Amino acid sequence: MPDPMRSYLDFEKPVAELDAKIDELRALAGDGSNIGEEVARLQDKAAQALRELYAELTPWQKTQVARHPQRPHCIDYINGLITEFTPFAGDRKFGEDEAMIGGFGRFRGDSICVIGQEKGATTEARLKHNFGMARPEGYRKAVRLMELADRFGIPVLSLVDTAGAYPGIGAEERGQAEAIARSTDACLALGVPNVAVIVGEGGSGGAIAIATANRVLMLEHAVYSVISPEGAASILWRDAAKAQEAATNMKITAQDLKHFGVIDEVLKEPPGGAHRDPEAMIATAGEAIAAALAEFRGLDAATVRTRRRQKFLEIGRRLV
Fold it and tell me: pTM of this prediction?
């Protein structure tokens, strides 16, 4: 059987079967059998099958990859890229929201403000972080951090990974829509450069609230949309089972969004997705973030702000 630590998606069945055979042969090797060549042959075959699968992913399959539970999350990127990270808690109005991680640290020696949604890697962590779905206090914490960063001239990095803002009654009572709008406005008002990276799901206003940035980067198999495929299917066809059709028609992939100018750069993932080599993916993201921030080094606040606003105005003009 395949390693239980590996988690395969439905469309990865051919790779799962090859990996299972490799595991069986390795078990036999413990009996002194000389099967090294056969294992190497199957490993090459599995790697080739994986490359071929991921070269032709459909939008719905990319959605599944973006949601993969073993994909590196916000905390993984912080641990891999940010030193001396000091998390901040609370919005100074209501309370703390664990779905929105935020604080200050150093990125390659320079001060940086980091804001991101954390889904959690275990059942306990997912419950703690509310599956990455922030409440109003999460977005108000983001505003608080952005205003601090702006005051001290510190760039802002946003790590986006959410199915959307939390739609619960309490969140709506505390002004969810207003909090999202104010967070989006705070992004636009920044006089320091901000870079957003869509690392998994970029869902609705919950993502836009921290992704309205000078540079928007997106992982190769991430998705970014105004609504989830299931939600769109429920509204358009009154049938969530048509999510696959919705995903195809919504143009939610990094490749489509780069074509339309909604994002600025697509970050290539390791063969088989970011979850198969998190360290390599985090390193790739680090290089892209550094290059994006370097574009704005030395620019005054008015220029940074103007370029950001013009960028989003141009998106509207292109798509009209």
Answer: 0.90
